[in-house]
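TASK: fixed-backbone design
INPUT:
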């Protein structure tokens, strides 16, 4: 969601939007940190905020029907399984434009900006386990 004038910072915005959009109250002390900003197709800046919410039953949430179509949870272990990871290649006018990650779970497909943020999160939470296929190799220094 977007920042309101009354929001103190991006963390406050994220916690307020989480409460408004899915009915989940996350205490500020449960925030782990802020990921690097990403930009959507309209060049708007999105600042992901990571927080621990503990065991979560999606049925206990109250999604705002004007903003949320469906809520589901994915265990970290599921996201880390290679068969649930992939990439989508986007073309425009018959020409390749860009590639983004995609994560699969039954009928659900996590893609777009949400998948990019999910990939950043997996790199942070499971650095030795999650290895993006399209990660560019580090160039030698010297």
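OUTPUT:
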């Amino acid at each position: 969601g977007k920042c309101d004038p009354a929001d103190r910072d991006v963390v406050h915005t994220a916690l307020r939007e989480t409460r408004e959009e899915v009915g989940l109250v996350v205490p500020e002390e449960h925030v782990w940190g802020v990921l690097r900003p990403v930009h959507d197709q309209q060049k708007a800046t999105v600042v992901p905020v990571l927080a621990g919410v503990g065991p979560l039953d999606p049925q206990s949430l109250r999604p705002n029907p004007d903003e949320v179509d469906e809520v589901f949870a994915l265990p970290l272990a599921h996201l880390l399984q290679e068969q649930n990871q992939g990439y989508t290649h986007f073309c425009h006018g018959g020409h390749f434009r860009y590639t983004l990650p995609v994560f699969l779970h039954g009928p659900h497909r996590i893609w777009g900006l949400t998948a990019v943020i999910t990939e950043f999160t997996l790199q942070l939470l499971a650095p030795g386990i999650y290895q993006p296929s399209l990660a560019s190799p580090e160039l030698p220094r010297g």
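COMMENT: The chain has two domains: 1-72, 74-130.
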